[in-house]
Amino acid sequence: MKTIKVEVPVMAEVFARGERPEYLFWVGCAGAFDDRYKKVVRAFVKILTHLGTTYAVLGKEESCTGDPARRAGNEMLYQMQALKNIELFKAYEVKKILTICPHCFNILKNEYPDLGGNFEVINYLQFIDDQMEKRKLTTDIKALNNIRITYHDPCYLGRANDIYREPRKVLKSLTANLVEMHRNKSFALCCGAGGAQMFKEAEKGDKEVFIERTEDALKTGAKIIATACPFCMTMMTDGIKYKNKEEEIKNYDIAELLAMSLDL
Fold it and tell me: Is the pTM of this model over 0.90?
């Protein structure tokens, strides 16, 4: 893979120059602070640069969407966060928002409008699929040497927003060996981190959800578990380690796999 230095445009700076990028790229808390997920952000930024897309990030002005607060029951904190973000978006005349986190995508798209935040919110897989449809992005079906890959559906992409086709289409453009878990699409099992479960201790039971879901993935015989959510990535990675399979099986985000295939 090439080492490419990418200058990420910051909204305050481009706005001051009188420029209006087509997209605000919402990085999200995981993309900003989690070392593993920063790699996913870098991969997607390289794809945006490869496509010549005009975008900008908020940088230090970006805050949390408020999703974890709302899921944990702190409605007041959620509304404070949301209203502050909406005010900032409007100040920068934002029309379209690109997200890589399904939790950010869902709340910005489906819940911010209740507070006056009406923007076109696009998940990165929808964006990539659209670029493929327009033939602005082409891949080789043998890019990953037909490595067997299985895909874990994030709850907030799949059941919450009916995004099933796009991730599979992207993966099928990279390998002819995409295999489904027996629980997939609307029947897929949660990774175990949603609904603010990521931030609390496990409850009593026979088995943690992330272990159950990792076992679903292992049964496919896949060498790569593809994910499209920072929560899912954390849980699947932990599951692989729990099963002592980290030398045999890898967990990559779809953006990373695409960037690898494009040699970015």
Answer: yes
